[in-house]
């Protein structure tokens, strides 16, 4: 009996540590099909950006791991399993989602909707930026809403670690949308992605003046104004934090195109505060790995 229990614990531990597969989740497995440029190509599966393979793969529910589901009347974050830890505010869920007990004992996930009858942890907002050490050092005034940042149908929540974005790649793969902040069609929105741990090429992406969608999903498809740099150039090594900031402004903003190498958020905001103000929402994610694989 004790041996069986120990084996069970060991197996559970092994599964919990095999989170990074090609589909970037222990709850998903690749079907073998790819879906680059054709997200609808996946049958009974979902087109998912794989940071491990640096391409888009069709991923289906795992056939070996029990898929946790949200409590009845609640919906999973972007339709998939995003686990969270009650003990770690840096893996908190974005605005309007809570970290709740899923159908699997001991597994918590981000669910939205109902607020009664479930064990919830409030979404982490401003304080999470301070706890994570992003503010005030890199983002002087943290936004009060945390975003989910999506690369096609793969999404990263605040503080999420993603591994092995280490394949040398010269093709920019900018975020396709952000979720969690309700934009207003009367305003325009600008999105920045900044690698705060880079010694060069700090500003990775800058998209300006996109009209608000009026919903809590804001698309950023299209050609960024400048610049647009792949997240994993040959120079990428180690453990980098990527900060994503969403700015809201009424007028068309035309900032001076900043020097991408020495770019700092504080410097940019000082120079351009009149047109951008403070970020209204944002997120950060962490990429581990080494270049040149
Ligand atoms: C995956 O599992 C979840 C939870 O059981 C279910 O809601 C979803 O429809 C499944 N997706 C597919 C593609 O089977
Ligand atoms: C959008 O912004 C306009 C201008 O400030 C405001 O009048 C309107 O109420 C806002 N709409 C929503 C849905 O908040």
From TrEMBL:
It comes from the Eukaryota. The keyword Signal applies. SUPFAM superfamilies: PEBP-like. SMART domains: WR1. Pfam families: Lustrin_cystein. Residues 1-18 form the signal peptide. Coiled coil: none annotated. InterPro entries: Cys_repeat_1, Lustrin_cystein, PEBP-like_sf. Keywords: Signal. This is Membrane-associated protein.
């Amino acid at each position: 009996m004790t041996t069986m229990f120990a084996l069970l614990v060991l197996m559970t531990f092994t599964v919990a540590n095999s989170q990074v597969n090609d589909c970037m989740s222990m709850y998903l497995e690749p079907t073998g099909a790819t879906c680059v440029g054709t997200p609808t190509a996946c049958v009974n599966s979902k087109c998912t950006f794989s940071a491990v393979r640096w391409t888009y793969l069709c991923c289906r529910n795992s056939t070996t791991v029990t898929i946790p589901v949200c409590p009845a009347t609640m919906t999973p974050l972007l339709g998939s399993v995003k686990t969270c830890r009650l003990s770690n505010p840096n893996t908190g869920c974005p605005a309007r989602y809570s970290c709740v007990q899923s159908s699997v004992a001991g597994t918590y996930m981000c669910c939205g909707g109902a607020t009664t009858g479930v064990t919830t942890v409030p979404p982490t907002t401003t304080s999470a930026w301070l706890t994570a050490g992003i503010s005030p050092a890199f983002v002087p005034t943290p936004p009060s809403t945390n975003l989910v940042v999506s690369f096609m149908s793969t999404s990263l929540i605040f503080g999420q670690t993603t591994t092995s974005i280490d394949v040398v790649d010269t093709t920019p793969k900018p975020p396709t949308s952000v979720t969690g902040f309700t934009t207003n069609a009367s305003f325009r929105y600008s999105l920045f992605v900044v690698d705060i741990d880079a010694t060069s090429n700090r500003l990775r992406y800058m998209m300006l003046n996109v009209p608000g969608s009026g919903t809590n999903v804001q698309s950023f498809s299209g050609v960024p104004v400048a610049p647009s740099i792949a997240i994993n150039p040959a120079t990428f090594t180690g453990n980098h934090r990527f900060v994503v900031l969403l700015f809201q402004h009424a007028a068309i903003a035309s900032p001076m195109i900043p020097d991408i190498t020495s770019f700092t958020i504080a410097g940019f905001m000082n120079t351009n505060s009149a047109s951008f103000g403070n970020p209204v929402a944002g997120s950060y994610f962490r990429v581990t790995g080494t270049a040149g694989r």
